[in-house]
Fold Cell division ATP-binding protein FtsE.
Amino acid sequence: MIEFRNVSKIYGNNHIALSNISLSIKKGEFVFLVGPSGAGKTTFIKLLLKEIEPTSGQIIVNGVDITQLKRRKVPFYRRNIGVVFQDFRLLSDKTVYENIAFAMEIANASSKDIKRKVPQLLSLVGLLNKEKFYPHQLSGGEQQRVAIARALANNPSLIICDEPTGNLDPENSWAIMELLNEINKSGTTIVMATHAKDIVDAMRKRVVALEKGVIIRDEQRGVYGYDD
Ligand code: ADP
Ligand code: ADP
């Protein structure tokens, strides 16, 4: 489903962020992306979202080389990917319900579909009773569950998570991981950049470790491998 072929990214200051990376991820996989700060994890994610372009190499997603994608097709491409961030990034002036509905409106969903789908998503993340709440009225764990519901709203085949538990206590972190694990079991591919050693070590999923822009480890049932 995702294939990086000899991908390099050199930023303007001649800094090599990724150096000749090749990696393939199959549909339905759960992949942890680990490595020290500055290793290239964020660059990898930005390339996958087509927020930046590689200096060289190809990035194939669902059979299409996204580096060659026409500008007008980029929004359609991105709709196929749900994104979850460390800082939640909910719209503060919209309720829980509206945050999810808005993501569907942007993707031109009908109001009938929105009315059917939003309660389903809220039920999946256990927040049906909070649909009228605003983000500031929710705990961090609840806000992240809303963000996950929003990420799922347009039925993406891929969810990318950038440090999704970085602002959460251990209990809420595990609740989020259980939710992501369920979503993965229903067939959605998950790529998650993280520094959460306990979570990576307990879940035994595929672990891809980057260091200085190079993949130094790729294990099917891996561990975190660093002390922090
Ligand atoms: P990580 O997410 O693993 O911390 P990044 O992908 O953010 O790593 O960064 C990889 C390297 O590229 C780092 O050395 C960083 O300083 C550099 N880098 C990241 N973004 C830019 C940029 N916009 N311009 C120049 N250098 C950058
Ligand atoms: P805390 O007591 O610090 O809030 P938890 O009770 O949530 O933390 O978890 C304690 C440890 O048990 C975790 O660090 C983890 O190693 C393990 N653990 C908790 N929940 C799960 C889970 N759903 N799957 C696998 N391991 C888990």
